[in-house]
């Protein structure tokens, strides 16, 4: 089993690197400009690959980019076939990587909570300082 895991990890890494290059050099679709391939997860039988992508921009731009990539999946798969030494080149399914966006959202919530705590502490601190100062 560890040997299979190492092979899958190697294939995921190779596909990620090659896809990033293919998207940059072979696609002229403006919808996919600036896309970053953040991960690849190939099925054990190598027939399917889930490719996560991110994009600096709005959620709508990311959705449009994913649609563009899924539209070009056949061309990208063919390009992978030319570059990789695999018996089976997986079908590609592109999905948005929401982890970065979720992380930003959570960070924003934490910043807001910390700021609110500081404000409450200052409000309470002023009253406490007066009583301690005597």
UniProtKB/TrEMBL annotation:
The protein's matches in NCBIfam families, at most eight in alphabetical order, are given as: rbfA
What's a GO biological-process term for it?
A: maturation of SSU-rRNA
Query: Matching SUPFAM superfamilies, A to Z?
Result: Ribosome-binding factor A, RbfA
Show the GO cellular component annotation of the record. Answer: cytosol
Per its record, how is this protein called by name? Ribosome-binding factor A
What UniProt keywords are attached to this protein's entry? Cytoplasm, Ribosome biogenesis
Give the quaternary structure: Monomer. Binds 30S ribosomal subunits, but not 50S ribosomal subunits or 70S ribosomes.
Record's compositionally biased regions (Basic and acidic residues) = 117-134
- Organism source for this protein? Solimonas fluminis
**Compartment(s) of residence:** Cytoplasm
Q: Which GO terms describe its molecular function?
A: ribosomal small subunit binding
């Amino acid at each position: 089993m560890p040997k299979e895991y190492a092979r899958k990890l190697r294939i995921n890494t190779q596909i990620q690197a090659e896809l990033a290059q293919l998207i940059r050099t072979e696609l002229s679709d403006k919808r996919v400009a600036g896309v970053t391939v953040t991960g690849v997860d190939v099925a054990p039988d190598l027939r399917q690959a889930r490719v996560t992508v991110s994009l600096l921009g709005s959620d709508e731009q990311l959705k449009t980019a994913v649609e563009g990539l899924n539209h070009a999946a056949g061309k990208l798969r063919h390009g992978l076939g030319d570059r990789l030494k695999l018996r089976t080149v997986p079908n590609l399914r592109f999905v948005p990587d929401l982890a970065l966006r979720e992380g930003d959202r959570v960070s924003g919530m934490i910043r807001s909570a910390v700021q609110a705590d500081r404000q409450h502490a200052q409000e309470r601190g002023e009253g406490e300082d007066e009583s301690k100062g005597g």
